[in-house]
Design brief:
By secondary structure, this protein is mainly alpha-helical. It is built from ten helices and two strands. Helix 2 packs antiparallel against helix 3 and helix 9 packs across helix 10. About 7% of the residues have low confidence.
Length: 169
């Protein structure tokens, strides 16, 4: 691990590992003395070792299951989580062109085109596919995604608008 990894973990831009906490304890001991190192090792932070914490943790990725602050930015804009915000396809979807972010999506699409990035096949999040299957019958989401993509997108967008509202939009 390098200094940039430790800084990223310390600021909350990257998940922390056990070694991060061990290196932090040793640095505290070296810089502030053995008593302060022992105090840190007994602290709640060292004992529980949160995976994502720090000043900029709200910008971190991951899924929504942790309920932490990491996905509040994404939730404000109606996305499921930070991963959903950056994987193309728009809210509760992935693959295909970036959507739902106005000029930001346009810039992301331009960047992808200029870099030659493959945008992948469009699909909705599993919870949206489950609702399509519930409405249309088991296996409908897969069938529509493969055989009738425009109908698939129309149904999915309607489901998202009715069930997954978020933030300012």
């Amino acid at each position: 691990m390098g200094i940039l990894d430790d800084l990223s973990m310390g600021l909350g831009l990257k998940d922390r590992d056990e070694d991060y906490y061990e290196r932090t304890a040793k640095t505290i001991g070296r810089e502030q003395g053995a008593g302060r190192e022992a105090q840190y090792r007994q602290s709640n932070v060292f004992q529980n070792q949160p995976q994502r914490a720090g000043l900029l943790a709200f910008m971190g990725g991951g899924n929504n299951q942790g309920g932490g602050f990491g996905n509040r930015v994404a939730n404000v804009f109606g996305y499921r989580d930070m991963t959903d915000m950056g994987d193309g396809g728009g809210r509760y979807a992935s693959g295909g062109y970036y959507r739902g972010g106005g000029m930001y999506s346009g810039l992301a699409n331009l960047g992808a085109a200029l870099s030659g990035k493959e945008l992948g096949d469009f699909s909705f999040a599993p919870e949206v596919d489950a609702m399509i299957d519930e409405m249309q019958g088991a296996g409908s989401a897969k069938y529509l995604r493969e055989k009738e993509p425009k109908m698939y997108q129309m149904l999915g967008q309607n489901i998202i608008q009715q069930n997954f509202r978020g933030g300012f939009f």
